Amino acid sequence: MAVEEDVKLIGSWASPYVARARIALNLKGIPYEFLQEVLGKKSDLLLKSNPVHKKIPVLIHAGKPICESLIIVEYIDEVYPPIRIFLGDADEESKKGAKDQMFAALLQLEEAFVESSKGKSFFGGDNIGFVDIALGSYIAWLKGMDKIAGIKFLDEEKVPRLVEEA
């Protein structure tokens, strides 16, 4: 399957599971169309793409749906080559676009964390859960980007709660 084919992500900006898929896409520098679902309604495309669970996120690559956020992340990691966009292989415009998308995704993740953690250390409050574990592997990578490429994704001013708990 060619990696340059059309990529769409069905989701909601407020979902931490969708944020996980968006972070993976943005880290890889993959252009995609974000198809925002309306809260309380399920689009025909969502129902067609995920007929069993009828849940977001759904990644559609070359017309084929991939469901469940961790499966989407694994798929993205396997289908797309390792990230090079921030390490010199891409033009400045592509790098800027990827950074902007990544910062936007982190701001969404910060908002979701603040709302769901209620001031505590984890997405679920006092107890570590699935989202915290799944996100943990990306935090180290984000910290490394500061040293490797000079890009500070975990900026205390922009995403203070994520930095605090990282």
UniProtKB/TrEMBL annotation:
InterPro entries: Glutathione-S-Trfase_C_sf, Glutathione_S-Trfase_N, GST_C, GST_C_Tau, Omega/Tau-like, Thioredoxin-like_sf. Gene3D superfamilies: 1.20.1050.10, Glutaredoxin (3.40.30.10). PROSITE patterns: GST_NTER. It comes from the Eukaryota. Residues 5-84 form the GST N-terminal domain. This is Glutathione S-transferase U17. The lineage of its organism: Eukaryota, Viridiplantae, Streptophyta, Embryophyta, Tracheophyta.
